[in-house]
Design a protein that fits this description.
heterodimer, A: 409 residues, alpha/beta, three-stranded antiparallel beta sheet, 15 helices, globular, B: 570 residues, mainly alpha, 1% strand
């Protein structure tokens, strides 16, 4: 530890006691454990399988790789994926082939259904490692339960939180000055402006998320949505959603006879002026697209008054990772205030932090408070109303029913 | 059929060589294809222990057969496969006739269409969508000065639910491919004499081609035609862009099931993959029956001595229609090139309103991936050609296995091979990468080289033998040089196929070896047309380079041979 900082903090009595306390607490045992992990990690190579469709994110991961190399002697290789499911397939194949160590994936960017499937099929590290990371102390699972509940699935410490996402709508303020801010208002907008709205076709993740959003807004009782779908009367609970869709579909883009295949395609339709509203799962998405020249600079984002779906994305270590120690060190670094601050900067990436401001050192907190917002990014206060993700089993059931009603032609 | 079969009379060396060839074929071809097939079939009947499937069951079949709209999806798939093949054939043949029956003047055509073969299908689809969409380039060219529109209109040609837009997009890829293989087949025929014979009997050029020349060409391109059909039946990325999607074709349903995060869906997905094989075989049977009917009709017309005075007119109009998708494909590529430089380009601007080099600056980071891609393409195309020549020389009943990578849906085939590679601890190695690429190139090198070898004039070998040349000398000095045009074509097509492989590379490389297509597909998954544009240009650059190199090598090596000058790179 650098001495100026130590002497500086010793001058402040409260901090002094805090340090003494922390040395006596169980946390210190953890950090000494973690030091052995850091030692073991030196010289290892981490194959980090993560979506590679955004050059800002790729640059951020490359920066983290440089830092990890100088600090811990870890080589971070970003395996750029078009679809996380392909990495899950690879891990599954390795399990089927009896490869219990020396696997090809060390660290995986994952959440929701993919995590639930990996957990259920024993494709993850057995240990509850995530909450033993030194950086875990900067989070607050009381204030942000989603870091322990991934789409209502308990993480049990088998994935470490990385960033937050929230469903946001984007609109071109020049063409549509006052966007509809509820499921009801959206239905009215679609009726009055036929052909100017659509959503990505299920089974696309964002398309299904949009359906869940409408269901949460229109359902008479949302409590059953947070339990497995088998325990509920699916038809009764989801009836308002199908009513909403049956009315809206003839007036969707292309009369509901075609849908964009995923959300980037939908964003393109907004850029091309074919629709007036697009959907994204990252609050900074529109700002980034404006900076890239894909959306006009008059595009803004908004959320529905009752709040929108929010979730957390994570880093997980497969059961057969070749460098599990180094993978933990990487996950810890990614959760550190320094890395989280850089990630939250819209000029770098613009991914909201999972850390709790009240657990940070004042200077780190100040850093977060001083972050600029993107031109089309809502403030934290505007994003404050969120809806928790329903139990993952609903996703599948809604997809099957959607296919039956709208997908078969 | 086999111009140069080794005979056992040539002693131990040849005997050993034959066994070496057998072992090579078994290891490189038979073993992985069987692994791929097992990987496709076993989960379809409920067997996949890693997911708890320990016993055989019909549950996967039941589950997938309950998919809403499945039968419509299957009919649609058949329509797209057969329709694309028939139209591509008609288009390629009519272009062939107006290009002079492939005699002499076809060189310019070849140079123009060669690179088109190497364009990734998704790039063609994105280009055509950008051309024809209501907010697309065509509309931007006439807006707002002609249409008065500042906002795109509501009607749409693409994406469409009938599958016609998809067929149009597929034709942009397949007409050039069929033209290329037809020209290659034509080079082995005395086309000029055949047409002269027709003229002597009082038939016009179009009628001579149709009655005399094209049936001979057709016999030689049946394999490539089958490949066209199977590709149209199984393509996944193009329908996602051009439609239909309610329901999508069968192959898309299968891939969706494989991509489902719920791993239990792998069982019905595997069944879908097997169903896809059955549908492909069924389509081939329908095509075979259609061949019989068309052949009989043609013969009846020929017997009656019809002069087909309308034939030139029909051919010219057909050729014009056939040129449309190809031109659209080119225009789409031009659009992709412009997009790769576009800073901002909003409706209704005809050209970008701001330009940027930002995306091309990123491309510099891709140099290592580019080197890997070139190495893998060159090595595996070379290996595939050698393996094909071995298979041709050796004969044997394993040869249909060559087609397995085309017939079995890629995602299930690749998973089976990947399992075998993982068990052997070969995943992530260069050996695995080259091996899997060779396997996927093999159907194409085979369908180019096998008919060319079958069409060789055996009398030349007999003359060489009578002059005392042994089998190896005959092979090296007669057979190989005569096959040179076909070999260069096979190398080019093989290299192009290798460059474009995504899923097989993703699995075999295990993230250890990166290629230009792995980077490009990840790069383009963010959905920006700018990035997709750069990616398409990068993917295209390697095959074009290979094309130019092979073309000049061929000129240098065979330019002095009068009889082969017409060949060039087919």
């Amino acid at each position: 530890m650098a001495s100026p900082i130590l002497t500086n903090s010793l001058r402040r009595p409260r901090l002094f006691w805090l340090i003494i306390l922390s040395l006596l607490s169980p946390l210190s045992a953890n950090s000494s454990d973690f030091n052995t992990i850091i030692d073991a990690a030196r010289g290892q190579t981490v194959y980090f399988n993560a979506w590679g469709g955004d050059d800002k994110i790729n640059d951020y991961i490359a920066w983290a790789g440089g830092e990890l190399e100088t600090r811990h002697g870890i080589t971070l290789k970003h395996v750029k994926l078009a679809d996380t499911g392909n990495a899950v397939s690879r891990i599954l194949t390795e399990k089927a082939a009896g490869r219990t160590s020396g696997g090809s994936v060390d660290l995986l960017w994952v959440n929701g259904e993919n995590f639930a499937a990996m957990k259920a099929n024993d494709l993850l590290q057995d240990e509850a490692w995530a909450e033993t990371l030194p950086s875990w102390r900067f989070t607050d699972a009381e204030a942000l339960p989603a870091i322990r509940l991934d789409f209502a699935e308990p993480t049990e410490g088998r994935e470490s939180p990385w960033g937050r996402a929230q469903l946001v709508f984007t609109h071109d303020s020049q063409r549509l000055p006052t966007p509809p801010r509820s499921a009801g208002a959206l239905a009215e907008f679609i009726r009055v402006n036929p052909g100017r709205f659509t959503y990505p076709q299920p089974p696309d993740f964002i398309g299904l998320s949009f359906l869940k959003q409408i269901l949460l807004e229109t359902a008479t009782d949302t409590a059953p949505l947070y339990r497995p779908v088998e325990q509920a009367d699916f038809d009764a609970v989801t009836a308002p959603l199908w009513d909403w869709l049956t009315t809206a579909t003839p007036n969707l883009w292309r009369g509901g006879k075609a849908y964009p295949f995923n959300y980037p395609t939908l964003r393109q339709l907004l850029g091309d002026g074919e629709v007036d509203i697009a959907i994204a799962f990252n609050p900074a998405d529109a700002s980034a697209a404006i900076a890239r020249g894909e959306l006009a600079d008059t595009v803004r984002s908004y959320i529905h008054d009752s709040g929108t779906l929010a979730n957390v994305h994570f880093l997980a270590i497969p059961f057969n990772a070749n460098a599990p120690e180094a993978a933990r060190v990487v996950a810890d670094f990614m959760l550190s205030p320094e890395a989280q601050l850089r990630k939250a900067d819209p000029r770098i990436w613009g991914d909201p932090t999972v850390l709790a401001m009240h657990h940070l050192m004042p200077e780190d907190r100040a850093g977060f408070e001083a972050l600029p917002r993107g031109i089309a990014t809502l403030s934290e206060a505007d994003l404050a109303t969120t809806l928790a993700e329903p139990h993952p089993s609903w996703m599948k059931a809604i997809e099957v029913e959607w296919r039956r009603r709208f997908g078969g032609g | 059929m086999r111009p140069d079969r080794f005979t056992p009379t040539n002693g131990a060396a040849i005997w050993a060589g034959k066994w070496a060839a057998n072992i090579l074929i078994a290891l490189a071809l038979v073993a992985p294809v069987l692994a791929g097939l097992l990987g496709a079939v076993l989960p379809a009947v409920g067997y996949f222990p890693a997911l708890g499937g320990e016993a055989l069951s019909l549950q996967p079949a039941r589950e997938f057969l309950a998919t809403p709209g499945l039968w419509r999806a299957i009919c649609l798939t058949l329509f797209i496969g057969i329709g694309t093949t028939a139209l591509a054939l008609a288009g390629a043949f009519s272009l062939l006739i107006i290009a002079g029956g492939g005699i002499g003047r076809a060189g310019w055509l070849r140079r123009l269409i060669g690179p088109m073969i190497a364009v990734p299908p998704s790039a063609v689809a994105i280009g055509i969508l950008f051309l024809l969409a209501p907010s697309g380039w065509m509309m931007r060219l006439v807006s707002p000065w002609l249409t008065g529109l500042t906002q795109p209109p509501g009607f749409a040609l693409v994406p469409d639910q009938t599958g016609l837009a998809l067929v149009f997009g597929l034709l942009a890829k397949e007409i050039p491919f069929l033209l290329l293989v037809s020209l290659a087949a034509m080079a082995t025929l005395p086309a000029r004499r055949i047409i002269a014979t027709g003229a002597g009997l009082g038939y016009g050029r179009a009628a001579s081609c149709l009655f005399l020349l094209l049936p001979l060409v057709y016999q030689r391109i049946r394999l490539p035609l089958a490949a066209v059909m199977v590709f149209a039946l199984s393509v996944v990325d193009m329908p996602r862009i051009l439609g239909p999607s309610l329901p999508p074709p069968l192959a898309v349903l299968a891939v969706e099931a494989f991509e489902d995060a719920d791993l239990a869906r792998r069982f019905p997905a595997a069944f879908a993959a097997c169903l896809q094989i059955v549908v492909s075989l069924f389509a081939l049977v329908i095509w075979r029956m259609g061949e019989g009917v068309t052949g009989a009709l043609l013969q009846a017309v020929r017997r009656r001595g019809a002069r087909l005075r309308l034939a030139p007119l029909i051919t010219i109009s057909l050729a014009c229609l056939a040129a449309l998708p190809v031109i659209a494909g080119f225009a789409g590529l031009v659009a992709a090139a412009i997009w790769s430089l576009a800073g901002r380009w909003f409706f209704p601007a005809t050209l970008p309103t701001a330009l940027t080099l930002r995306y091309w600056e990123r491309a510099a980071d891709l140099a290592p991936a580019m080197v890997n891609s070139i190495l893998i393409a060159v090595i595996s195309a070379g290996l595939a050609v050698i393996l094909t020549l071995l298979l041709i020389a050796r004969g044997g009943s394993w040869r249909p296995l060559v087609y397995a990578p085309l017939l079995v849906p890629q995602v299930s085939f690749v998973l089976g091979i990947q399992m075998a590679l993982t068990m052997l601890w070969l995943d992530g190695s260069w050996l695995a990468m080259v091996w899997i690429h060779t396997l996927f190139i093999l159907p194409f090198t085979w369908l180019i080289l096998a008919p060319a070898a079958a069409g060789l004039d055996k009398r030349q070998l007999a003359i060489a033998a009578s002059l005392g040349a042994g089998p190896w000398q005959r092979y090296r000095q007669i057979t190989l040089p005569l096959l040179a045009p076909a070999i260069t074509t096979a190398l080019f097509v093989g290299g192009s196929v290798s460059i474009a492989l995504y899923l097989p590379s993703l699995f075999a490389s295990a993230g250890r070896i990166t290629t230009i297509t792995l980077e490009a597909v990840a790069f383009a998954s963010g959905g920006s047309r700018q990035m997709a544009g750069v990616a398409a240009m990068l993917q295209l650059s390697v095959p074009v380079l290979i094309y130019a190199l092979l073309q000049s090598w061929y000129r240098w090596r065979y330019g002095g041979f009068a009889g082969m000058r017409a060949g060039g790179l087919h």
